[in-house]
Prior knowledge:
- This protein is an alpha+beta fold.
- Among the domains are: 128-273, no CATH class; 414-481, Arc Repressor Mutant, subunit A.
- It has helices at residues 3-9, 26-35, 39-52, 63-68, 71-78, 84-95, 128-137, 143-154, 166-172, 181-191, 204-213, 222-231, 233-238, 241-248, 252-263, 310-314, 321-358, 360-365, 375-382, 386-392, 425-437, 447-456, 463-472, 478-481; strands at 56-58, 285-290, 293-298, 306-308, 397-400, 403-406, 414-416, 422-424.
- Strands 3-2-5-6 form a 4-stranded mixed β-sheet, sandwiched between helices. Strands 1-4 form a two-stranded antiparallel ribbon. A two-stranded antiparallel sheet has the order 7-8.
- β7 (414-416) and β8 (422-424) form a beta hairpin.
- α5 crosses α6 (84-95), α7 runs antiparallel to α8 and α11 (204-213) runs antiparallel to α12 (222-231).
- It is flat and about 90 Å long.
Amino acid sequence: MNLNDSQRRMKPALQLRLGQSLALTPQLQQAIRLLQLSRPELELELNAALEANPLLETEEPDADEAELEGLDDYATEASQDETGDDAVEAYDEVRAEEPLDLDRGDYRSNSGPGEDGALPQDAAPEDLRDHLLWQLNLTPMPERDRAIATAIIDAIDDDGYLVESDEALCSAVAALHAVTAAEVEAVRRRVQQFDPLGVGSRNLAECLTVQLGALEHDTPGLPLAKTLVGEHLELLARKDRAQMCQLLHVGDADFDTALALVRSLSPKPGAGHATGKAEYVAPDAYARKIGGRWQVVLASDCQPRLGINEHYAGLIAKAQRDDASYLKGQLQEARWLIKSLKTRAETMLKVARAIVSAQEAFLEFGPEAMRPLVLRDVAEELGMHESTISRVTTRKYLHTPRGTFEFKQFFSSGVTTSDGGVASATAIQAMIRKLIDEERPSQPLSDQGLTVELNRRGINVARRTVAKYREALNIPSSNDRSRIGAR
């Protein structure tokens, strides 16, 4: 090969190729981002958009529009036999399921009624520390001991146990008083008598012993209960009833009395003063059976009503070049946002209706009737991509007569049955829970036993699958479920 041939082969040339690719335009990116937002997140997003874009404004529907909002789509799906009035009545019945007078910006529980019966949203409930400090203030005690007690209370965790050593507590009050470990221990014994009884203990055995020590001396089973708690707490959690009776040389009746007494104690004395607030879920859609058919509507504020500020829009033609360019850009963004919100609502409604249509048996009969359903099934039915269905079903909630569920909870894989059908993983988990709830406490079903029973009912499932489902339900193994007090 000579140099000229090599140069001819390396000579650049133009080539035409046809191909397809998906370009993520800003509009598409915005639509995708809004689709995966939860309801609270969407509100934050829209509040930020309203503050940043002068061309955006909220629209308040008039009375007639508010009453018929979203009714057209619902009436079309409801029934061909329903008149307009009938559709309005059915729609109102479903909308009656929605919570009333909720602050849309606050999904937390309220702490308690005020003087006027209202529930103050910002009032903080009394936590364990406040409860103990209140008792400390009512307890006659030298300032030295009070400082130690305050340090002890500050070191108690939410379960009511003391997590700091005596040396650390001594250091905590060293700036005020020089104290010894013996003094700290003496004050801790006094704190343990506060309500809840046993608070400030260092371990479970000590906590239960303190609670037993407060009982009357003639309490039936008290001596044996103290022995169980003080010396055999580990065995109590592992051994069965017959072995424990033999070890302690006691009869069945005496053991049962002591065991019942131990079980009446509180292993976590601080649990009753937890400060965590209940989180309320605002449903995105509502499903209810009307006229023999399951109907679905979106929540009233699932699609916020945004509009174009006509005043600023009218200034575009009169504004100078730079200002007009800015306003045009904001106008385009406002239109994109409004269109994306409409698309989000329409997509959510389609997916919610597809889910309800597929899981009518669950809505009628409960978890054991849940049918297998995967994202691909809904995607193919609606002509959408699986990733779109995944975004819609994440952190979106459907309110039903059986409760409020995240969309994703209606999806589960399937297991074949002996008759050629398919049972969903959710249904199998419900069967496992029911079998365990109905088992004899003295003879809990092992994973193999559960497998045999499910196979007998036509569910072809392996033991390892049963074990996986049981663990997913947070149900202990058969050994751990053995109950000492069962005969």
